[in-house]
Amino acid sequence: MMLLNMSRTRCALAVAAAIFSQAARSEEPVTQTVQSSQMVQGGTGLIQTPTSRMEEAGDLYINYTDNEEYRFWSVNLQLFDWMQVTARYTDVRTQLYSDVESFSGDQTLKDKGLDVKFRLWQESYYLPEVSVGFRDFGGTGFFESEYVTASKAYGPLDFHLGLGWGYLGTSDDLTNPFCKISDSYCERPTGYSGEGGKIDYDQTPWKPLRLKLEFEGNDYSQDRAGVLEQDSRWNVGAVYQWKGFDFSMNYQRGNTFGFGVSYRFNMNTYKQVKIDKPPKDIVNATPPESVVKMDKKQLYRELAYDSGFILSDADITDDRAVFYGNQIAYRDKDEATQRIGRIAASALPDSVTSYHIVENAGRLPIVDTVIDAERFKVAAKYEDIEADITDTYTRQAPDSDILAAYDPAKTSGFFHSTDFFYTQTFGSAEEFYFYQGGLLLSGGYAFDENWSAISTIRATLFDNFDKFTYTVDHEDSSLPRVRTYVREYVTHDVWLDSAFLQWNEQLDNDWFVQAYGGYLETMYGGVGGEVLWRPVDSNIAFGVDINYAKQRDYDSQTDFFDYDVITGFASVYWEPEFLPDTLLTISAGQFLAKDKGVNIDFAKRFDSGIVVGAYAAITDATSEEYGEGSFTKGFYISVPLDLFTLKPSKGRGTFPWVPISRDGGQMLSRPVRLFDFTNTRSSFYD
């Protein structure tokens, strides 16, 4: 073991070596995949300090740790194999929630933080893995740090060395090398500066057990919990792995015992076993001789029950079959198409050379999947081992002939649905965790293909919002109260969320338009319209919406306050090729509080269909005008319902998390977005 300790200026550096190993060792260094674990504050690391190690893409860790002064709740997500993010709540046990004791009560101080880490290059035989990270850059700065760290495996040992600034390195052992560039680098406005190093060994003769040894660069002299006594800069810990759980214990600062538990699952590989009929076998199928002799009723039943395709119309001639409808069961486009194709191949005569599967948005045909019948049969019957069945069909916009043949028997009538909702918030003064759940009862009447009346009632079944008593009515703010009356709206047991009239139309192959008016969302009513350009399976789309919105009276289901606003955005929806399975939405315009700026939404889809997203709104409202949090930001996870069902199904549940909600950067929750309405054009969420 070797320790370098230079003159006390701004930084700290440490080098150490573990002395335990797993049985015998090779005499030559061999790189290997080292199983990492979570550190105290969440994220891949040792005890108090991060390493360069990454998890498997899609890994999600849910962590809880306790070490006397602090309790940490964190979620760590490996978005890509080179990018890791951590969201964290900290309970500071030594401090009250606020400076006002009567307001704080017995609630201790809560802090929100966001970390991100990027891998610069991977480990090779001779070179270490190197990553750069930013801790607490999206929070209040309690633990603000930046760092560069390197990791190198040697047999069962894993060595780590890092250079850091801020909370990670307040011991100040070495001069900050960037001071030579500018004096401004020598001082941090928050008071944090420094550099730290660390090491652990990762395996023992007992495989589930991992041991850690760490020399850290923080002296805890600038800690949010107060100055903490540090008898030693060495920390030790152990992690025991059982199935998806990690149980950890550690001894920190030479005087503090800590423990924690983490649960891991992978959002790429997570799936639910299905009880479902296999696709129709057409090897021994005997198609009818002609269209006249086919059994159409049996065909339509099989389309509904075996392929999840609900018909609204069909047009079958001697050489072409067109099926119009909606897919309600299969999220995977290829599986849905091939199931329909197999049913059509067994039920239609050989004279029919093409099958058209026309999917509707509402009652509008917007996507035509064209199957070459002859080539499809060859591939489906395995007559050519080199045939790829996905090459036998293409997706396109419906042409004029397909649209002209669309003549549904019924375009009007009543419809209804019931959905479950669940909302939550963390870190409030009255209660750390607020929750609310219930039913969304929706229904309406379709007048024709274009016009409909829609309404949704929110019925709360359970919540603890009766403890949500704090209001900000008397706070000074130059921004109008567009969202901070949330308590007054959500504490109603039954509330008319929306009731509006909608018109939509497809103007051309790739152009869609809609208009709407009424009670548009929980807090606002008004009128609006939207235009969207979206080609089939394009990785880019553009849209413009404009709305006149008036604030609803929270004491009445139907009345309004005086506040009104013109709000709207120009939006681009982009799935960049260099970030697979990612949707980036950028919207520029005027928000509800009449502040102007840009909202950026980043969504990542995993192989299971789970989508994780984050958004932030940057406007011309200053951080002082905005208040705590400085700008609007939030996170969400969208989960396919068929991950919880034994039968294939479509539909999603979305769980949002908004760290703190203020009035700047707030968008109108429009009742229908054309991008969602036309999802089948390029099914990011399917």
Secondary structure tally: strands: 30
In percent, how much strand structure appears in the residues?
35-45%
Q: List low-confidence stretches.
A: 1-32, 190-203
The assigned CATH architecture of the largest domain is Beta Barrel
N→C terminal distance? 54 Å
Helix proportion of residues, in percent?
A: under 10%
Strand order of the largest sheet: 18-19-20-21-22-23-24-25-26-27-28-29-30
- Report the CATH topology name of the largest domain: Porin
Number of helices: 8
Q: What does this protein look like?
A:
With 686 residues, the chain is mainly beta. It starts with 58 loop residues before the first strand and ends in a 9-residue tail after the last helix. Helix 2 (296-307) packs antiparallel against helix 3 (333-347). The protein is globular, with a radius of gyration of 29 Å. It is built from 8 helices and 30 strands. The protein has a 13-stranded antiparallel sheet with strand order 18-19-20-21-22-23-24-25-26-27-28-29-30, with no helix packed on it. A 12-stranded antiparallel β-barrel has the order 1-2-3-4-5-6-7-8-9-10-11-12. It has a 5-stranded mixed sheet with strand order 13-14-15-16-17. The chain has 3 domains: 59-266, monomeric porin ompg (Porin), CATH 2.40.160.40; 291-404, 2-Layer Sandwich (GMP Synthetase, Chain A, domain 3); 470-492 and 507-681, no CATH class.
